Amino acid sequence: MTRKYLLTALSLLCGLSVGLAAVELSVRLLYPDAVQSNILLRLEGSHATWARPDPNFHHVGDGIYRLIFPDPSEPSAPSRIAIVGDSFAMGHIVGEQKRFGHILQEHLGRAAKIDVLATSSYSPIIYRNVIEKALSLVPYRAVAVFVDQTDPVDELIYHEDAIEDHAVVTFNMDQMSSRQRAIDAAYTDLLKRLSEPARQSAIVNLLMPPSLEGYFRPQDKYYSYVHMSVRRRDYIRQFNTDPESEDSEKMLSLLTRHLERIVLECRARRIPIFLAANPWEFQTSSRPRITLGLPGPFPKENRLESIFMSRFGYMPDVDVIRLTQAFREQVEPSGLFIDDPDYEFHWNEEGHKLVEVVLRQELLAKFPDLKTGR
Known about the structure:
This protein is of the alpha/beta class and 374 residues long. It has helices spanning 2-30, 36-46, 87-90, 100-108, 124-137, 151-159, 173-194, 202-207, 223-230, 232-241, 246-268, 303-312, 323-328, 349-366; strands spanning 52-54, 58-60, 80-85, 113-118, 142-147, 162-165, 168-171, 273-277, 318-321.
C-alpha cells in the first residue's frame, strides 16, 4: 500500500513538474519581457549611467551622447544645417557613421556642413536650449528638428526640473543630483534582487513584475518622476488614444509651447525650420511588432505629425516633413526598424537611409544650390 502511494505521489510530482515546465515555456514564448535575462538587459539599458545632470541641457554624456557645438573660430561653412533631436537623430544602436545626419553629409559634400545635436531622451524643452546656443555661435541656413513619440511624456518629466525665467529655461541641478543618487541606489538593489534564483522563472516575474517604481511611495518626493519615466510607453499610448485626458492635454501644451519658441527663434533670424515627427512601427506597418498594447487595425495615425501640420504647416519658412507616408510606401515598413532585442523601437540602417533621402529632398527643394556640393 505504501509503495502504491509512493508511486502515485511520484507520478503526481512528475506530472506537476512537466506541467510547470510547459507553463514556463509558454510564458517565455508569450511574454518574453518576463524572461530574467531580458529584464536585466532592459533595466541596464534604460539606466542612464552615461548621463550627468546639466543646468542647460538636463543631462549630457560622453561619446555618441555628447553635444558637439560648432566652433565659432572655424572657417564658415557655405551652408550650415543643424539636425536636432533625441536618440533617433543621435543614431541609437546604428552608430554615428550610419545615422541619417552622417549619410546626408556624405551626399551634400562640401556644399553644406551638417551638425547633429542630439542625445537620448531629449525633447523640445531641451531642444530650445540646444538651438539657441547653436545659433549664438555660428550662422545656420536651416534647422531640422526631429520630435519623437516619447517627447510628449518627456516634456512632463523634465517640467518637474525646469526653472523658467521668461524665455530662458534652466534645470534644478540640486534636485536632479539628489534624485539620481536615490535612483542609482534603487537600481542597484533591484538588479541584485533580479539575480536571485527565483527570478529565473518567467512565471514568477510575470506574477510579480519587478519595478523601479516599487521603491518609491506615491507621497515620496521623486515618485512622480520615476512613475512617468517607468511608464513612458503608457503615456505614449494615452497621448495617441485619449487626447482629451488631463495628462494628454498637458503634454500637448508643454510640447507645442516649446516648439513655438523654437519656431519663433528661427523665424526671427530668418532661418527656415523643418519639423518631423519620428514615425514608429505601429504608425507605419500593418503588422507591427511593437503595438504599445493598441488594438488593430494598423497602421495608426501619427498624431504628432498631424498636430505639426495643423499648428505649423501654414507658417512661412516652416516645413513639416511627412516621414510617415514615406515609411508606409516601402514594401515592408517593419524592415526599417531594429528587431533585436525585441523591445527595441528605433530605426535600423535602412530606416536611417530612408530618412536621409526624405530630408535631402526637402532641403534640395528649399535650397537648389546644395545640389552642386559634390
